From TrEMBL:
Gene name of the record: folE
Protein name, as recorded: GTP cyclohydrolase 1
């Protein structure tokens, strides 16, 4: 559970620690804003996508489903700076499909916490396997990390691409290639 008053206290200390004046007008409400922002961007801590993926519909044919270009914003756990980009999800159903919006909600849950891009990628794939009981899931994430852009190595424009496949995607190279071709299609 997010403790907003503790975040406010910590934010005031941070402002003072960088040598700023926490009581000047422009910064007066900043600790409260930071607390509200953290409540939003860390709203996925300790949550799973079970409630979203449990709402599913029967299908007679287990054909490939792809939801691509799902925009996300997350926070890198090393620097608490944003990383953001697109998630592409593919799966082969096992008699049931999820509502399309629930795939985007799944991305939201796992991106709203201190995260690693690799972990975000496999947590989405694992959730589909576990909560929608699909025959296979494949997830590709492409993102830009602000911690590589605005500080440190300073390489704006660098894209990190991660992928994860589970179930029948592990054995079926042709299926993986088909998904990659469909994801790349504009
Ligand atoms: N694998 C992975 N690394 C990440 C991710 N987000 C940030 N990083 C990296 O985490 C590493 C942390 O490295 P450290 O050496 O502990 O931290 P640092 O001194 O701030 O490193 P620099 O960024 O190189 O200045 C950096 O190389 C980041 O680029 C991510 O999602 N996945
Ligand atoms: Zn980072």
């Amino acid at each position: 559970m997010i403790n907003k008053s503790k975040i406010k206290e910590a934010a005031t200390m941070l402002i003072e620690a960088i040598g700023e004046d926490a009581s000047r007008e422009g910064l007066l409400e900043t600790p409260d804003r930071i607390a509200r922002m953290y409540e939003e961007v860390f709203s996925g801590i300790w949550k799973t996508a079970e409630e979203y993926l449990a709402k599913n519909f029967e299908v007679e044919s287990n054909d490939l489903v792809i939801e691509k270009d799902i925009v996300f914003h997350s926070m890198c756990e090393h620097h608490f700076l944003p990383f953001f980009g697109k998630v592409h999800i593919a799966y082969i159903p096992n008699g049931r499909v999820a509502g399309l919006s629930k795939l985007a909600r799944t991305v939201e849950v796992y991106s709203k916490k201190p995260q690693l891009q690799e972990r975000l990628t496999y947590e989405i794939a694992n959730a589909l396997m576990k909560y929608l009981n699909v025959q296979g899931a494949m997830v590709v994430v492409e993102a830009e990390h602000m911690c590589m852009n605005m500080r440190g190595v300073r390489k704006p424009g660098t894209k990190t691409v991660t992928s994860c496949y589970r179930g029948i995607f592990e054995e079926d190279k042709n299926l993986r290639q088909e998904v990659m071709a469909l994801i790349s299609m504009k």
